[in-house]
Amino acid sequence: MRVIGSEKPNFLRIVAGSILCAGMSFAATAPEPTFSRDVAPILYRHCVSCHHSGDIAPMSLVTYQEVRPWAAAIREAVALRRMPPWLADPKVGHWSNDPRLSEREISTLEAWTERGKLEGNPRDLPQPPAFHDGWKIGTPDVVIAIPEHKLAAQGPDEYAYINVPTNFTEDRWVVAAELRPGNRKVVHHAHVFVVDEAANKASAEASTKDPAKEYANSIRVKEGTLEWVRPEAPVINDGCAVDDNARFPGSKVSDLGGLIASYLPGREADVYAPGTARKIPAGASVNFQIHYSHTTGKAETDITSVGLIFAKEPPKQVSRRVDLANHMFMIPAGDPDHQVTECHTFDKPIAITSLTPHMHLRGKAMRMIARYPTGEEQTLLLVPAYNFNWQFTYRAQPPINLPKGTRIQIIAEFDNSVNNPLNPNSKEPVRWGSASENEMMDGWIEYVDAEPANPPH
Ligand code: HEC
Question: Ligand 1: which of 51, 76, 189 to mutate, judged by most atoms within 8 Å of the beta carbon?
Fold first, then answer.
């Protein structure tokens, strides 16, 4: 990796150098870029959301003193488009949260790092973004936190499922939600679901004697807080070829999917599209699902919380989501290129507002395709080099309109070979499971109804 990484910038510099020669008169008169006037605005827009103290990046890039020592590394990272991280193929789709730098921004950063790295006039410096005591969504109307969770110094990964009542006495419409890990050293990722207690009770009563659910329970193992599919369970790699799309038997896709916020590497807060909101019914509770890794070798504690911002006026649209999944695939030992599919047909016209691929360490690539009722097909999202360490939600701008009867097909590729540097074990077949060493093949879709009910519900 390092060999490739160090060769490419040289090549790019030669190209850039020849362009500079051709435009010499311009280059000679153009004022030398300075940190305050030219560099800081780019960093503040594209980099400091992660590169400020206390966030996920290893160094802060806010002040001149902080940035200067990193000049060479910044030049390489932006020239190779390693930073800011982003995995969608730019030729497919338009995403409002696409963070990529323009060519002009890249050449400004390159020019600054290759020339005098001047600070310039501090009065040119824009106001650095405020981080609201760490909340990226602004000051939340409500913060709901788990009771302190204790972790032992060592042990296998742990999934904690923690229920916290909201005590909301009326329905609330949420326009933004942000999950904040209390202890970033041990919280690998986390989700928070809204649990409608009344609806749950009704569905539990209805399903106690459902044979499909009993069968589904027999093919998976639950141990402590982890869950996985038994090695000998039937295998369905081509989920699109079967009716229930290779979900657990009896588990239906539901558009009341209760997930309201996620904390995943590289993912920003859940801010719903303008005019849309998620509903938290009165009396609901929120369920935190937190994946803890024992990374420090010391006993640790964590108080993870979710911050919510409520709609100031009733929303025009309900933000809905379906979580598509193939639960029944099996990736053979050592296979460098194993394909798994899943499909879902929408029985109403919708507009997709975001797409999120989710796989674990063997995830290699994912394509999401719309097959229209006319028979035409269109790739909506292509992630040609998936990376577990960067899990993005791709927010469609504008929303993607799909007529009733459109079938979504998701094709994933997995690399279970020794050549995958993230692969923890290439010697065994891999199946669905909640731990990172097991796999998942999920596509999460947020959408709104194209013909919404009035008032929305
Ligand atoms: C989504 C969060 C995020 C954003 C946005 C981001 N970074 Fe990073 N950056 C990281 C993390 C995390 C690391 C350390 C892990 C790694 O290298 O992948 C890192 C590492 C780096 C490194 C050192 C390693 C390397 O790859 O060279 C540089 C330099 C860097 N970032 C520069 C930038 C610049 C410049 C920008 C904006 C143009 C930026 N980053 C935007 C999260 C981010």
Answer: 51
